[in-house]
Every structure is written in structure tokens, then in C-alpha cells.
Known about the structure:
The protein is an alpha+beta fold. It is 17% helix and 28% strand.
Amino acid sequence: MIEDLERFTLRLLRNGSVIDTGYGSNVLGSPLYAIAHLARTAAVPLHAGEIITTGTVTDAAWASAGETYTVQIDGLPLEPLTLRYV
């Protein structure tokens, strides 16, 4: 699964239409590299169970009321995530 972190594909959909596609390699080559860099340079040690965000693999999208966004990921064992803005 570690190797899959740089190879996965993510599609960002707004109201059912793809607005961007990104790849794990967009995050400093791999989200794993981003975490390793953080661990080497952080002023405090990382601990098991901490949640770390490594950045985005797509461009940011402005959300407006009434829009629905879905993230679909291929290459990792994750279900799609859908958010509706009210």
C-alpha cells in the first residue's frame, strides 16, 4: 500500500461533473515523502495515531450553497466521499 500513495488517482466532481483530476505524486512526489520531510524537520516528534494532512492533489475549488462535491479515488481502498453545501 505504501507504493500506492504516489500512484493513486483522485477525481473531484462538482454536481456530478469532473472539475479536476490529481495524483498522489502531486504531493512532493508522494504523500509519504511529505510525511517523512515533516518528521525530519518538525520541532516536536510525531506520534502514532496523529492525523496529518499532506496537502492536496487537485486544485482548490470554491464551494457555493447548493453544490455537491464528490471525491473518487482509484488505487487505494477508499470509498467515494460526497459533501453537499447548504
